[in-house]
Design goal:
heterodimer, A: 619 residues, alpha/beta, Rossmann fold, 2 domains, six-stranded mixed β-sheet, 62% helix, B: 625 residues, ABC transporter transmembrane region fold, 23 helices, 60% helix, 9% strand, elongated, transmembrane (chain A), nucleotide-binding (chain A)
Chain lengths: 619, 625
């Protein structure tokens, strides 16, 4: 689970019954819509920086193929020219053939090496670029997007889909260029050796081309199906592994296995389909090739018998023909990897075509100098309205001003819009209408780093990244010194437990902080926020797993370290609320009460009720 | 097909022993399809021989009918070539048709086994292994293994056989020229041995690095709110770029090795063919050799070029497959802790009728008892103190015990021991007198139901998520559980209890998820209930309602409730204070507040804090100490 919105994020009008979600949500499908030709444009832009190297590698391959294909020609020369010459005691042609053979053998090997290095460099650069683009792009997309796209799919974009493109580039490229060159060379040589045989060979490309096209068409859908199937397998797999505790505790193993078996079987059958298509293609193309070969042998032998053709030429022609058709399988494999890469490329292009819901400003502005020397800044919600793009208004139009340095508590029941308010302030979302201003500057005109100097949000789910505890705290301010990190941890009351870890601050939190309790994780998250030193701090249920001493340490830290900062605290614990200067009570997306805690408690509104209920709960 | 990773030609170098051993481990999966694979290999050998016979047919035409001017002989020869060609094409197709299904099955079976095994590995294993690493084993590595079984394995055999057959043909035709062609074999073997070792090391590094890359991707997606909240894209991108750059370096190193291997494999045999050509021409000129024989000889030699060259990449793929197999079996070899003394771990016995199993009716109802329970994480440093050290605790039947302790005192760890998510390293835990270590896990987890601090929901409907723990629970059960957890909000979801939630469904808030997790725990009326801070994300109002409903459930259930708050503690009959790895005190909330300083501090906070936050507790307790 990666989500903690306060609202349901999809429209409530879903009508489909049973398991299938509404059919018209593009996020239900694996491929997000992308403009036509997006995958092609993506491919072009990936290959653009490699243009020079691509040309060079084509040249290398050209020479290499020349060296490789020289063999049979030299055999023909040896038989037709060198043999008679030697009989005349003229060893010149033989020596020439021998030297040429040695040179071509060495050149073929050397050029092959050069080509492999070159093409690997091209391929790896493309992959590096592509991986980086996916990663960076995913990072710029809004939280809203991530909640809908799901982590499993994103992971499979960045892993298996990139992998299939890697296969295409690694092996496919060489195969394609190599095969094309070989075909051209061989055809030209055959035509040179004998017009008739050459023409037959060239004509044979017509049925082969048709076969290839039919294969291409048929394989495309199979590959698309396979790539979707493996993505489903990945989603199930990651969900299970990330939720292994409840999986085991609720004995989901068998049910999971059954479900996994279904997904696995779908992938298997798509796999079989792909392999059978390939088999069909290989059979038919081989058949064409061998029939042509037999025809050439027959026809050639007649002509040799009639004296119309030299024996050496026939021998060479047969050798070349075999070679001409040898790469047919390889071409199929290339089409294979091309198909699966194309399917992957479509998905990646669909992902990259997603525009960030929260775009970076074109002309970023800087925050003004602080007015009063106080670290906090003023927050103004100006005629803000928020609705999810799928419909359903969450926050009707409202105006709200939070004075600099004010600590504001926001309370209200689940679904009242508290978290949405916080997310608008943190610019996880942009308002549908109106704007949010920080010291008079709209949030959407602040560049990322500037925005985060202004506003930082600590959420309830305190995720730890793999790495050390110190590194996790330093996310708040990269480049912070150890002393600063420790100071932040001490201020929040996290120092003692961190110091007690096997390697103190250098302890690796391992996978998602498995060994650090939820409360401790929240403390680390707080230390992070403290270190970030923002003008506005948002705490969204950030103390829910802390015990009372822990919460008090946090409150003390807020009273001292964060004094003068603007703070928005969302909490169910009214103990947290009571340190606030001001309380906003929200219901149905609106602020229904607004005042100091004392005022509200003294009144007769919802907060007074809540407060009473809370006190009763302690009894 | 039996284990044919030892192609006769060129022989596998001695350094590859371990690669062969890794691949041999695939045998149990390959066994069921061995017939198909063997058929495919046999068919391919025949097909290759048919291919090789074509030059011989040509020689026969040239030396026979053509030289003798016999047109009907030419027809015969042409027919022979056609026949051989048809045979070759059909057999290659047969190979693919025969293996497609079985090999896809092997891949799927291996994946299913890995998944099943991972599900049963202890939580401690999953704490250590990044799921990206597990995922890359389940996808990329297994695909590689299937490809290995489909092509390299067959072709190592077939091309090996082709090479041997080809050389036999060559030696028979012309043994001197044949020997010339054999000359490069020795250097090639040495070179292959040299590269293979290095290549397989590089391949392993690359696979591990791409697993790490997957982990970074995964974390950056799961932690997206933190990255965004702190504006740390740059840092994540840098980490990602560094890893991706390292992977690129490894891949380039692999390409360098592969390129060199190719260069040798291409050049050396070609040089030998060149030498044979020169020698052959001399012999033909001297009349020692017929022109037809030389043509056939060279045709055969050139036809062998592909099988010989292919050895290079076949060996490379086989090496990568071997490391993939290593990575796969690394996980599969991690033992599943024994189910119980009597039964086998891998195949838990199919559960008989759900509900009351016969053996348990007449048992003392002694509740949950922990005796001298100790626990340390298997990967903890030797000098680190154990997390739990001699925990003695008795939760009487039907009693609710709150478990209180400072953050990080081991409360959650302790609760994980009861359903055996972690195995206690010492001591004994009994449920109604029955040692949990002697119980099948399945049975144990049927008895004990848990609500986790981190309420994970799965991609399924709300109803399925809630009824997960209640075997065969129906609509009534679902309603009751939702009622207890005050999860009435589900009815306003788009499709009510059939709404899909989890990874692939609707996003719910923390409080909503927590209530569903609570409903899941209480569904099916478990005998023992473990709740880890079950109300932390609820607002005050909802919390009060849940507490009221939960009290009824708890009245008849033996329960252990981890609590941070007095309000949660109030659900319990008694409270146990966990401190320093053991139970420091047990008593009612009021008793402990009076008698235990640590407890009072935990429940009421600092004494010297006079601010409003403490006031309610202070008033409630009528003066702490």
């Amino acid at each position: 689970m990666t989500t903690a919105t306060d609202q349901t994020t999809t429209e409530p009008e879903r009508t489909a019954t049973g398991a299938g979600p509404a059919p018209d949500d593009p996020f239900d499908k694996d491929v997000l819509p992308a403009p036509k030709g997006a995958s092609r444009a993506l491919l072009r832009s990936l290959l653009a920086p490699a243009r020079g190297r691509l040309r060079l590698s084509a040249l290398v391959l050209l020479l290499q193929q020349a060296a490789v294909q020289a063999g049979p020609l030299l055999v023909a020369v040896a038989i037709d020219r060198a043999v008679p010459a030697v009989r005349r005691d003229d060893y010149g042609p033989l020596i020439a053939v021998g030297v040429a053979y040695v040179v071509s053998a060495l050149a073929a090997g050397l050029l092959q090496y050069v080509f492999i290095r070159l093409s690997a460099r091209i391929g790896q650069n493309v992959l590096l670029d592509l991986r980086g683009r996916i990663f960076r792009h995913a990072q710029t997309l809004s939280v809203d997007f991530h909640e809908r796209y799901t982590s499993g799919r994103l992971i499979s974009r960045a892993t298996t889909d990139v992998e299939s493109i890697r296969e295409l580039i690694n092996d496919g490229l060489q195969e394609l260029i190599g095969v094309c060159l070989a075909v051209v060379y061989i055809s030209v040589t055959l035509l040179y050796l004998d017009w008739g045989i050459g023409a037959v060979a060239v004509l044979s490309f017509v049925p082969l081309r048709l076969l290839m096209r039919s294969y291409d068409r048929r394989a495309r859908s199979v590959y698309r199906r396979r790539s979707t199937a493996i993505a489903a397998v990945i989603v199930k797999f990651t969900e299970t592994m990330n939720g292994i505790r409840p999986v085991q505790a609720f004995r989901r193993e068998r049910a999971n296995e059954e479900h996994f078996a279904e997904l696995n079987a779908e992938h298997r059958s798509a796999n079989v389909g792909a392999m059978l298509e390939m088999a069909r293609y290989v059979f038919l193309s081989r058949l064409v090739a061998n029939v042509v070969l037999a025809a050439v042998v027959l026809w050639g032998a007649y002509r040799v018998a009639g004296g119309g053709l030299e024996l050496g030429v026939l021998a060479a022609a047969v050798l070349y023909l075999r070679r001409l058709y040898d790469p047919i399988d390889q071409l199929g494999m290339f089409l294979n990897s091309y198909q699966s890469a194309a399917a992957s490329l479509d998905k990646i292009a669909g992902l990259l075509a997603q525009r960030p819901g929260v775009p970076e400003p074109a002309e970023p502005r800087a925050l003004p100098e602080r007015r009063s020397g106080m670290p906090g800044r003023e927050v103004v919600f100006e005629r803000v309205r928020f609705a999810y793009r799928t419909g359903g208004e969450v926050l009707p139009r409202f105006d709200l001003t939070l004075r600099a340095g004010q600590t504001v508590a926001v309370v209200g029941s689940t679904g009242a819009g508290k978290s949405t308010l916080a997310k608008l302030l943190a610019r996880f979302y942009d308002p549908t209408d109106g704007r949010v201003l920080l010291d008079g500057v709209p949030l959407d005109s602040l560049a990322g780093p500037e925005l985060r100097r202004g506003v930082v949000m600590v959420t309830q789910e305190a995720f730890l990244f793999s790495g050390t505890v110190a590194e996790n705290i330093a996310i708040g301010r990269p480049g912070a010194s150890r002393a600063e990190i420790e100071q932040a941890a001490k201020a929040i009351g996290a120092h003692d437990f961190i110091a007690a870890l096997p390697e103190g601050y250098d302890t690796d939190v391992r996978k998602r902080g498995g060994r650090i309790s939820a409360g401790q994780r929240q403390l680390v998250a707080f230390a992070r926020a403290l270190l970030a030193d923002p003008a506005v701090l948002i705490l969204d249920e950030a103390t829910s797993s802390l015990d009372i001493p822990g919460e008090q340490a946090v409150q003390r830290a807020m009273a001292t370290v964060l004094r003068g900062r603007t703070a928005v605290v969302i909490a169910h614990r009214l103990s947290t609320v009571e340190i606030a200067d001001r309380v906003l009570v929200m219901a149905g997306g609106r602020v229904v009460e607004d005042g100091s805690p004392a005022e509200l408690i003294a009144g007769t509104g919802r907060f007074a009720d809540l407060h009473r209920a809370w006190r009763d709960s302690l009894a | 097909m039996t284990e044919t990773h030892e192609p006769p030609e060129p022989p596998r170098p001695a350094g590859s022993r371990s690669a062969v051993r890794s691949l041999l481990r695939l045998w149990p999966y390959v066994r069921p399809v061995r017939g198909r694979l063997a058929t495919a290999a046999a068919v391919t050998v025949v097909a290759s021989c048919a291919g090789l016979a074509i030059p011989l047919a040509l020689k026969w035409i040239v030396d026979g009918p053509v030289a003798g001017g016999d047109p009907s002989g030419v027809w015969l020869g042409g027919g022979l070539v056609l026949l051989l060609g048809l045979l070759e094409a059909s057999l290659f197709a047969v190979r693919r048709f025969v293996t497609a299904r079985p090999l896809a099955r092997v891949e799927a079976d291996m994946r299913a086994d890995l998944y099943g095994h991972l599900q049963r590995l202890p939580v401690a294993f999953h704490d250590r292994w990044a799921s990206g690493q597990l995922l890359s084993r389940s996808t990329t590595d297994l695909t590689l293994l299937r490809i290995f079984l489909a092509f390299p394995l067959t072709f190592l055999l077939v091309n090996g056989a082709t090479i041997v057959a080809g050389f036999v043909v060559l030696l028979i035709q012309q043994w001197v020229l044949g020997l010339v062609l054999l000359a490069p074999v020795v250097p090639l073997v040495i070179i292959c041995a040299y590269f293979e070792e290095r290549y397989s090391r590089a391949a392993r590094t690359a696979q591990d690095q791409s697993g790490d890359l997957a982990t970074v991707v995964e974390e950056s997606v799961l932690g997206i709110r933190i990255i965004k909240g702190f504006g740390r894209h740059r840092g994540q991108e840098k980490a990602f770029a560094a890893l991706a750059g390292r992977l690129r370096g490894t891949e380039l190193h692999k390409a360098h090795l592969l390129g060199l291997l190719w260069a040798f494999i291409m050049s050396l045999p070609e040089l030998a063919i060149g030498a044979a050509l020169v020698l052959g021409v001399l012999q033909v000129a001297d009349g020692d050799l017929s022109a037809g024989t030389l043509v056939a000889f060279l045709s055969t030699a050139l036809a062998l070029r592909w099988p010989v060259e292919s050895m290079g990449f076949l060996i490379a793929i086989s090496n990568e497959a071997a490391t993939a197999a290593d990575r796969y079996f690394e996980v599969m070899d991690t033992p599943v802790p024994p189910q119980e003394t009597a039964s086998r771990p891998a195949n838990p016995p199919a559960r008989e009728t759900p509900g009351e199993a016969p053996q348990e009716t007449p048992r003392e109802r002694s509740g949950l008892r922990l005796e001298g329970v100790g626990f340390r994480y298997p990967d903890a440093p030797a000098d680190a103190p154990p997390v739990l050290d001699g925990v003695d605790l008795h939760v009487r039947a039907g009693e609710t015990m709150a478990l209180v302790g400072t953050t990080g005192s081991g409360k959650t760890t302790l609760t994980a021991l009861v359903p055996r998510l972690h195995e206690a390293t010492s001591g004994r835990i009994t449920l109604d007198g029955q040692d949990i270590a002697a119980m099948p896990r399945e049975r144990l987890r049927e008895l004990v139901s848990v609500a986790f601090e981190d309420p994970t929901l799965f991609s399924a409907s709300v109803g399925e998520n809630v009824l997960m723990g209640a075997d065969g629970g129906g609509e009534a059960e679902l309603r009751r559980a939702l009622e207890v957890a005050q999860a009435g909000f589900v009815d306003s979801l788009p499709e009510g209890t059939r709404t899909q939630v989890g990874e692939q469904g609707l996003s719910l808030s923390g409080g909503q998820r927590q209530r569903l997790a609570l409903a899941r725990a209480v569904a099916g009326d478990p005998r023992f209930l473990i709740l880890d801070d079950p109300l932390s994300a609820l607002d005050v109002h909802t919390e009060a309602l849940v507490e009221a409903a939960l009290r009824e459930v708890l009245a008849g259930t033996t329960a252990l409730v981890v609590a941070h708050r007095p309000s949660t503690v109030m659900l319990a009959d008694r409270v146990a204070l966990l401190s320093g790895g053991r139970i420091a005190a047990v008593g009612t909330h009021h008793e402990l507040l009076r008698t235990n300083r640590e407890y009072a501090l935990l429940m009421a906070g600092d004494e010297d804090r006079g601010d409003a936050a403490d006031a309610p507790y202070a008033r409630h307790e009528g003066g702490r100490r």
